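Pipeline run #58 for the internal structure catalog. This entry was flagged by the ingest filter as a single-chain record with no existing model, so it goes straight to prediction. Upstream metadata was stripped on purpose; only the residue string is passed forward. Reviewer on rotation: M.T. Logging verbosity set to normal.
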Amino acid sequence: MGSINPIYGSILPSLTQQALQSNYLSFTDAAGGNFAQQYLPEVYEQEVERYGNRTLSGFLRMVGAEMPMTSDQVVWSEQNRLHIAYDGCFIDDNTAADAGVVTIPTNDNAAPFTGTNQAINVINENDTVVLMNVNSGVTIKAVVSNVAAGGGTSTDVTCLAFQEVNLRSLGVGAAGVNPIKLFVYGSVFAKGTVGNPNKSAQPQFTQFHNTPIIIKDRYQISGSDTAQIGWVEVATEDGTSGYLWYLKSESETRLRFDDYLEMAMIEGEKAAINGVDGAAADGMFQAGKAGVPGFTAVNAHGTEGLFAAIQGRGNIMSGFSAGTGISDFDQILKNLDTQGAIEENMLFLNRATDLGFDDMLSQISSGYAGGTAYGLFENSEQMALNLGFSGFRRGSYDFYKTSWKYLNDASTRGAVGTPGIDGVLIPAGTSTVYDQVLGTNIRRPFLHVRYRASQADDRRYKNWITGSVGGAYTSDLDAMEVHFLSERCLVTQAANNFVLFQA
């Protein structure tokens, strides 16, 4: 019988049947997985995988990247809009003479501009503006003659219409009666005049942060039960024979831990801490931190996962239905137009929503997938199909959709009834953010994982053995303990381009 010379990576066969750390053959580890799966398929025939491939991981590897970090949190800054529209403005006046004063209230779209004159950073004298009644659509163009502090932290902007004698046609009344939208489209100056010497528009950005969490798992087997060990005889590169060993139950723990790493990044939730991230009161985890082993006020923080990031800073599509045709989906496109307008996007859907998309698209064209570009997959339709994606184009956007096992599995989100999460839309490619450490703009994937690592310790994926069995002699414990640890968090950049589908 001939011998096989696999590429072992970090695993080295022993000359005798010794259970060592160095000759352990893991079925899920890159060092030995290919060998085990290709040359030893009979190993798993002892049990029937009645739930199929039970692992749920792979989503983050498909859409993002992993990068090291050294601190207790990751901080990034996202540029705000170049142009600002002020919503919820009103003319609280019924006299024609004073109907040119438009009040910009507190907590509108100018949220970055706080203080007495929150609009001064953007709106100046001699600016030309568009005023629109949101309900009626009445539009007036005017020039700004004065910007002054209003009551509280509001700002009063005096606008003189080019055509109208006053602004009454926009509607008057208190806040909410006739909501007005205001934005600047340019300026107008008389000959021989100077510019506005006292006011200058400054670039604005919003800062976000996330903190890593430590995820652990452990598998233990007594020395007596190591009779479960299986041995594989192989040939080394120099022609001599050697042995590798495997333990199927440890592999199960490893697979589950891999799933936890991904699920924690998807489902992660920050702890509500009074005064932090807008929280009005402490959540139960923060308030009861003393009851959770190892946690104090300093480290009881949690982490922001994908769903939480989209719910807090992204877009929610509720009640998407294929029965309404393409109209529901076109609403998403219109909203994407108002955000970053990322050309290529990926859809990860549960089975029902995935089929709903198929029904929706078939109403338009039975060959909808043939009319799209596959730029995300190097223009290879076959590559997209091999990865489980089908593509279509609508408007100026390319979409690649697939059924997401995590939303279908009965042991996870698949067990949740209505209302639940039906899918996510994730922009492909990278975005530009300001890195606080480097002090410069850098490009990063919209969705990526940061893990703790330094010259002393790489905590991306730690795996070690303790006890007195399996080649480890660290204690007098008559068992082998296999430990798993990772410290990581998810960075969801430009969440305003993400969409969460909810029932």
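catalog note: Residues 1-9, 37-52, 107-118, 366-371 have pLDDT under 50 and may be disordered.
catalog note: The domain at 86-203 is CATH 2.40.30 (Elongation Factor Tu (Ef-tu); domain 3).
status: ready for reviewer M.T.
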